Amino acid sequence: MTADPECLFCRIAAGEIPATLVHEDEQVLAFRDIAPRAPTHILLIPRDHIRSAAELTDAHAPLVGHLFAVAAQVARDQGVAEAGYRLVTNIGSGGGQTVDHLHVHLLGGRPMTWPPG
Ligand code: AMP
Question: How many domains does the chain have?
Fold first, then answer.
């Protein structure tokens, strides 16, 4: 398990910075986004410091599968699964990524437009 002491999400995973957790296990954390863009806005992160989805390899397949399974469970728990929701991960500054630790946004509770801005 790698961690970057300068990384905001590593520090949340370590419990050094508070967050409103909705799920926690050995591999994955889910917590409420501090600046929600939808009535339900949750971030799912691996505990491991992976900078973005662009760094993923075949070796990460179990982790990524687990992260998406957790996302589906969190969506059910939060009551947005039936209406539908969006999972999105931004990559690099051009992709809108502002925190360099892999995270999947779970957005729900309102209709989503397409394409995203
Ligand atoms: P992105 O722009 O895709 O890298 O997403 C980063 C997200 O992290 C943004 O939606 C921010 O609102 C969110 N964020 C930043 N700091 C915190 C924090 N301390 N706790 C929870 N969410 C945060």
Answer: 1
